[in-house]
Amino acid sequence: MTFVPALRAEWIKIRTLRSLVGGLAAVLVATTAFSALAGLDDSAGADFDPLFSVFFGVSFGQIAAITFGAQAVSAEFQGGALRVSLAAVPDRGRWFLAKAVAVAVPALVTGLLTGVVSAVVGTSVLGTRASGLSRAEELRGVVGCALYLALMALFAAGLAAVLRSGVATLSILVPFLLIVSFVVGGASGGVADFLPDRAGQAVLHATPDGGPGPWTGLAVTALWAGGALLAGAWSVRRRDA
What we know:
By secondary structure, the protein is mainly alpha-helical. It contains 10 helices and no strands.
């Protein structure tokens, strides 16, 4: 089977699994809801960042994004599904590339929609406190939101291919994103600024506080995602189905 039919088959799997469709919907709902809640907090001080407040919900929406990426791949290791997939696409590298693209495209589209809705809702809730935001900053936030969420979904997909378990993948990534990253960030100086979540979210700050810049930070996250995907591709090629 050539790449296009393989991609079409992987896309059919994703859009017909309710858990995966629900995961994408959760990205939008969680991000928008928490961004709105952040905007209701009017206790901001002198270091208030209106752009990050508008996209604050990404910190929670990314959990849904990594769940989507992890489940999309880990489903192949349940009930012998991978053997069936490889029977149709014997070239394991081609199959894994199709899987990665099938994860990336809907995650990117959902992330773009999420960014637009968050920008509209977030600025509306902030009201006059969002007056300092420029159109360029809002556009950067929308695009950055989409790219970041897609990269985190791919990062989880690559890790799931290595671990062959969605539960194991989420057991590592969820505590890391919600707890470990912040603890390490407070104790490691600038090293933590190059972790995948902290680097990528620099694009959501009007003025990043140290560390990589907005697009450089996304490039760092892309390197993490690329490394995970390469490890996942190696695992798929070398290990039994």
